[in-house]
Structures are given as C-alpha cells and as structure tokens.
C-alpha cells in the first residue's frame, strides 16, 4: 500500500472525528434540560456557537489561503477536538454546568472548523482511483454519525449519568489521528492563482460566479443540520419516547439514510450528473421538511425526518465536487465553501429553535396543535421545520441558474458569463 493511501484512510477517519464533534452533544440536549434546567434557547445557543466559531475560522483560513501549513492545521484540529470532548465530560461537573458546556463546545468547534477547511484540500490533492470524490469521502461522516449515535445511545440506556464518560471515550479517535498526522505524507498546498489553464483547461479562476456556489453551500448546510441537530429532541418530545428509542428513531435513522445516499452516489462516481442529482435532492428535501411539519401521525412525521437524511445526503459533498469541476479549488476556495456551508449549518438549526421558541404559546401554534392533535411544544417545533424548508427551495433555483451559466452547451463556462 502506498503511503498516500494511509493518508487517504486517515482523511476518511477525520470525517468520523467531525461527525463526533457535530453530532454527540445533541444527544444530551434533553439531559441538559432535565439536569441543568437549560432552556431551548440556550440549546440553540450551543448550536449557534458551534457553527459561528466555524464561520470565523473558515474566514480566517480563507484569508491566509495558500500560506496555511496543512500539516500543522490538521494536527491542531485533532488536538483541539480531543481537548473539547474531554472537557465536555469533565467541566460541567467542576464549574457552572452551562459555562462548562460552552467552554467545551468552543474547543471542539475550533477543532471541527480547522478540520473542515484543511481536510478537503488535502483529500482533493491525493492520488485517488477514478470516481472517488467528496461524496464517497463524506459518507464516512455519516457512518461515523451512526456509530456515535448507536454506541452513545446504548451507553445512555444503561445510565443517563454515563453521558459524562462518553465524550472522553470518543476523544480517543482524534488523539490517535493527531499522532498519525505527524508522520503521514501531506500533499503540497495549491493556490488558485498559480494553476495554469493548461494544467486543467476546464477549471476557471474564482470570480463573481463563485457566489452561486456559496449560496448552494449555505442552503446545503442549513438543510442538513436543520434536521440533524433536532432529530433526537424531535423524537423524544414528539413521541414521548425513551432516550435510546428516541435516538434510534431520530438521528440514527437520519444518519443511516444519509450514509446510504452518500455511499451509493460515491460508488457511482462519475456516472451521475451532479447538477441534476443535486436539484432532485433539494426538491426531495423540501418535501420532507413539509412532511415533517404537516403529517398528522408523529410516526409518519418521524419517518419523513429519517428520509430527509437521504434527501440531503449528497448536498454538501456534491456541491464541493460541482464547484471543483468549475473552478481551480485550493485552500482559499475550499475555505470559502466551508464558510458558506457553516453559515448554513448555523442558520438552519438555530432558526428552527428560535422560531419554535417565538411561536410557543401563540394562537397559531395552539390552532396547529389542535388540528394535528399534538402538544403545543411539538407544534411549535414542526412550524419551525415548515419555515426553514425555504433553504431547500432557494437551493433549487440557484442550481438551475448554475446549470445555465456553467454547464449548458454553447455557453461560456467562465466566470464572466455569470451576471
């Protein structure tokens, strides 16, 4: 096996690290409410801080561009991820619980943000078999998400008090990867301004047309995390289920369908038309969001929540592949795309939580709850899903525009054609 293949495997496992960072703490939301009396607004703040920090760091890395030392950043990302997970298990019992949670969130969010902006350019520059792109690589995020949910839920079923030990156990993976990346070969950084047209004539340098891909990434992040961050809470509150059953029926099923979608599309590789499949994905996502909101049966609504995992599965990685097919993408480009995706990851779930809080106790929520015969709290959360379906709708129209500007025969594909 070539040394770069070990780097490729480490990249796959790094996506698992990111799955741990982003999907572990939502499993504890109900525990935080019951044990520490943390409100829904504060839970939304945890989500907001997670992705706000990623936005800030994405912006900083985009500014540095090719000056970034990829090896240093990838090692630092795993180090801070491990530190945040360990502190999540320790700090809430040592200081004010909410403050301890926030400190931990800050640490692993920094790690997640650094990981996002360097793992994509590292993976993109590795020699790989034909057809292996970001969709397949990001499937490891989904399988990691499933593993995090299943194993953590089983431990929580034994004892809710075990939650403090769970993040410490998960810290083993980023710690191991931190050590590995000291020795693994890392490809050289690439600048969008130094790649000649002769090297890859299909690619164009960044310009205003790149903004279309920024919009797509915002919508992709919002559509994905809008469900992912609230699936466990939705299952427990909507069905009145136990923690284990709620996690299995909510985020675990979501992650399973998401993993299936990415794996299937990743195996198909170059055989799929990215613009068409992304448009279909956005349409299906908007349908799932509305189904979550308006289906009368809680179980049918939860089924729509799970199926939305398949709908959004390829949005993020396929958008990266699509951008890479239109532009020379180095650290700056991938940082900007990650920045846009993280903005979406902040907007989607945060808007859902805030809208739900704002609508709680209002006449429209009471009316909606009576019609569907559900609790007012559940009605408020469902209305949040209905409103945030707008991100998928925006994505549909943006993809249509991208198809016309960049990928229609007879039209110029450079950025001057984007108006």
* Poorly predicted segments: 191-204, 410-419
The rounded Rg comes to: 21 Å
Largest sheet: none
Give the CA-CA distance, first to last residue.
Answer: 47 Å
| Approximate helicity band | over 70%
Number of strands: 0
Can you give the mean pLDDT?
Answer: 79
How many DSSP H or I helices?
18
What structural class results from the helix and strand content?
mainly alpha
Describe the global form: globular
Sheet-strand content, in percent, reads under 5%
Give the SSE string. HHHHHHHHHHHHHHHHHH
Description:
There is one protein chain. With about 425 residues, the chain is mainly α. Helices cover about 75% and strands about 0% of the residues. The chain is built from 18 helices and no strands. The C terminus is likely disordered.
Quick overview:
The chain is built from 18 helices and no strands. It has helices at 3-23, 29-36, 40-64, 70-90, 97-125, 134-158, 166-170, 172-180, 210-228, 231-239, 243-268, 274-294, 298-312, 315-326, 331-359, 363-372, 376-388, 390-406.
SSE layout and pairings?
Elements: H1 3-23, H2 29-36, H3 40-64, H4 70-90, H5 97-125, H6 134-158, H7 166-170, H8 172-180, H9 210-228, H10 231-239, H11 243-268, H12 274-294, H13 298-312, H14 315-326, H15 331-359, H16 363-372, H17 376-388, H18 390-406
Question: Which descriptors apply to this entry?
Answer:
mainly alpha, 419 residues, disordered C terminus, 18 helices, globular, single chain
């Amino acid at each position: 096996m070539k040394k770069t293949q070990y780097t490729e495997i480490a990249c796959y496992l790094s996506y698992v690290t990111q799955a741990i960072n982003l999907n572990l703490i939502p499993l504890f939301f109900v525990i935080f409410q019951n044990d520490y009396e943390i409100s829904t607004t504060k839970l939304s703040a945890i989500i907001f801080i997670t992705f706000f920090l990623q936005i800030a760091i994405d912006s900083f890395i985009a500014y540095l561009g090719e000056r970034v030392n990829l090896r240093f950043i990838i090692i630092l990302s795993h180090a801070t991820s491990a530190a945040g997970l360990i502190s999540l298990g320790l700090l809430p019992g040592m200081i004010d619980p909410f403050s301890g949670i926030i400190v931990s969130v800050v640490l692993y969010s920094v790690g997640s943000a650094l990981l996002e902006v360097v793992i994509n350019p590292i993976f993109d520059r590795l020699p790989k078999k034909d057809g292996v792109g970001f969709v397949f690589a990001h499937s490891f995020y989904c399988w990691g998400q499933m593993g995090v949910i299943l194993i953590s839920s089983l431990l929580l079923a034994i004892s809710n008090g075990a939650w403090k030990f769970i993040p410490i156990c998960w810290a083993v993976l980023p710690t191991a990867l931190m050590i590995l990346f000291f020795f693994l070969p890392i490809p050289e950084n690439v600048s969008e301004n130094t790649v000649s047209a002769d090297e890859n004539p299909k690619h164009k340098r960044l310009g205003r047309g790149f903004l279309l891909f920024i919009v797509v990434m915002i919508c992709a992040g919002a559509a994905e995390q809008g469900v992912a961050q609230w699936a466990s809470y939705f299952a427990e509150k909507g069905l009145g289920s136990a923690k284990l059953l709620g996690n299995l029926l909510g985020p675990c099923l979501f992650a399973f369908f998401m993993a299936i979608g990415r794996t299937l599309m990743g195996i198909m590789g170059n055989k799929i038309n990215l613009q068409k499949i992304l448009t279909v994905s956005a349409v299906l996502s908007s349908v799932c969001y509305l189904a979550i909101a308006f289906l009368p049966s809680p179980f049918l609504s939860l089924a729509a929540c799970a199926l939305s995992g398949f709908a959004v599965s390829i949005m993020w990685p396929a958008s990266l592949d699509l951008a890479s097919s239109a532009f020379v993408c180095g650290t700056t480009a991938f940082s900007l795309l990650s920045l846009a995706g993280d903005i979406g990851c902040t907007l989607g779930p945060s808007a859902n939580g805030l809208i739900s809080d704002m609508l709680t106790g209002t006449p429209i929520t009471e009316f909606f709850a009576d019609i569907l015969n559900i609790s007012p709290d559940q009605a408020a959360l469902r209305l949040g899903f209905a409103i945030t379906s707008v991100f998928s709708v925006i994505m549909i129209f943006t993809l249509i525009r991208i198809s016309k500007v960049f990928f229609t025969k007879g039209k110029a594909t450079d950025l001057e054609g984007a108006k």
